[in-house]
């Protein structure tokens, strides 16, 4: 399988690493290069390809190593890995780098509820100290008079705004936002399917169809194509014997044949994966699971009037609905939907957004356990018909409509259209 390296990515990493090994006159070179961008765009993998091409020795660290039950351990570990990279450079006579993957997941402040520990503070301080004095990196409790080999540090992440601002300032960290161009995406996806001999035209149409998907989507798509053969293998061997056959079996496993790489099949499997993504984003079950906790916190705030507030349900502004028992049959005159509600539904869909319809009974309303009645896009008539049907089928339930932004798949507004009971 051939792998594509984006020319701009190669240039930025190669220049940063090489500059740190040169003695440029009267030039202060930032020690750290921060590669950030959207999830799944192959930042770490592109780094590995560049390191392999340049013949660089790499010392790896992950976000999971930046926290410990013992205060000071992650900072000490960073110093150890930095000095280890310097020792490899000295012994093997090659460039070396220290790579810290997903740094914002380890020491980033995502929101006000993110725990800020002593180690988080010490890791920021350690990296700033190394960036300021890269040739004098000492271990706790000891001092080495010999200068430390200067080693460039590469960090990857999604959102560097969650890091401590003095760490990412110019002079300490050089920033590079990785956003693959159309040519980059075509090159990378073509490399993924190179051994499968997928035509260049099919690659272009595949990328254009799933233009808003990240790079790792196409790798997952190729892996999904082998599912049918794996299922057949399990059926032939038997679900009870597959473990022993695969792990410690004496017989060789059958060869996997080339799956169906026709464009129509690729698009079909890709659309199925997209629907799974949309379902996760639109359900947002985490909000339901945490709604009861948040409600309990809000009800317990304040010492006065706590007993009255405990029995009161906070409700959003409700759009008016005509009181009627008639069901919607496609005729605007027979629906119980008011002009204001119809206008709001059309406004959401005309913006290119998705409209979600949800309902919940009075008992589950307090815990926020909403159920999805349907999600609609573009077709206003179908959305209004479904909304009227939901109101008719659940006359005693709470019903709301949700404005969903399709690109980021986030909820913009939630509006109650029927009060339960």
From TrEMBL:
UniProt signal peptide: none
Transmembrane segments: none
Keyword vocabulary terms for this entry: ATP-binding, Nucleotide-binding
Entry-linked Gene3D superfamilies: 1.10.8.1070, P-loop containing nucleotide triphosphate hydrolases, Ribulose bisphosphate carboxylase, small subunit
InterPro entries per UniProt: ATPase_AAA_core, P-loop_NTPase, RCA-like, RuBisCO_activase_AAA_helical, RuBisCO_ssu_dom, RuBisCO_ssu_sf
PANTHER family with a match to the protein in the record: PTHR32429, RIBULOSE BISPHOSPHATE CARBOXYLASE_OXYGENASE ACTIVASE, CHLOROPLASTIC (PTHR32429:SF11)
Protein name: Ribulose bisphosphate carboxylase small subunit
Record lineage: Bacteria, Bacillati, Cyanobacteriota, Cyanophyceae, Leptolyngbyales
């Amino acid at each position: 399988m051939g792998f594509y390296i984006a020319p701009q990515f190669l240039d930025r990493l190669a220049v940063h690493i090489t500059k740190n090994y040169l003695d440029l006159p009267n030039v202060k070179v930032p020690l750290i290069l921060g590669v950030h961008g959207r999830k799944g765009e192959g930042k770490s993998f592109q780094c590995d390809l560049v390191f392999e091409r340049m013949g660089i020795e790499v010392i790896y660290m992950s976000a999971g190593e930046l926290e410990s039950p013992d205060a000071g351990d992650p900072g000490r570990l960073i110093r150890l890995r930095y000095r280890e990279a310097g020792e490899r450079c000295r012994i093997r006579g090659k460039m070396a780098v220290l790579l810290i993957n997903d740094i914002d997941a380890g020491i980033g402040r995502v929101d006000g509820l993110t725990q800020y520990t002593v180690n988080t503070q010490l890791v920021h301080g350690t990296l700033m100290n190394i960036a300021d004095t890269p040739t004098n990196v000492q271990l706790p409790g000891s001092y080495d008079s010999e200068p430390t080999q200067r080693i460039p540090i590469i960090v990857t992440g999604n959102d560097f705004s969650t890091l401590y601002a003095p760490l990412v300032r110019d002079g300490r960290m050089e920033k590079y936002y990785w956003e693959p161009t159309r040519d980059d995406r075509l090159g990378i996806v073509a490399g993924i399917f190179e051994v499968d001999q997928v035509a260049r035209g099919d690659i272009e149409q595949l990328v254009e169809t799933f233009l808003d998907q990240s790079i790792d989507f196409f790798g997952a798509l190729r892996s999904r194509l082998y599912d049918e053969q794996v299922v057949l293998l399990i059926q032939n061997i038997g679900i009870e014997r597959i473990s022993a056959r695969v792990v410690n079996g004496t017989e060789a496993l059958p060869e996997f044949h080339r799956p169906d790489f026709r464009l129509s099949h690729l698009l079909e499997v890709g659309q199925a994966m997209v629907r799974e993504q949309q379902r996760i984003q639109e359900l947002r079950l985490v909000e339901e699971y945490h709604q009861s906790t948040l409600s309990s916190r809000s009800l317990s705030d304040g010492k006065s009037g706590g007993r009255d507030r405990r029995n009161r349900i906070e409700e959003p502004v409700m759009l008016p609905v005509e009181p009627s028992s008639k069901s919607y049959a496609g005729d605007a005159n027979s629906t119980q939907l008011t002009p204001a509600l119809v206008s709001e539904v059309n406004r959401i869909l005309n913006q290119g957004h998705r409209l979600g319809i949800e309902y919940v009974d009075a008992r589950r309303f307090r815990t926020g356990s909403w159920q999805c009645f349907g999600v609609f896009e573009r077709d206003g008539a179908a959305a209004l018909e479904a909304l009227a049907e939901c109101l008719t089928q659940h006359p005693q339930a709470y019903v709301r409509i949700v404005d969903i932004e399709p690109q980021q798949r986030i909820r913009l507004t939630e509006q109650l259209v029927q009060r339960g009971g």
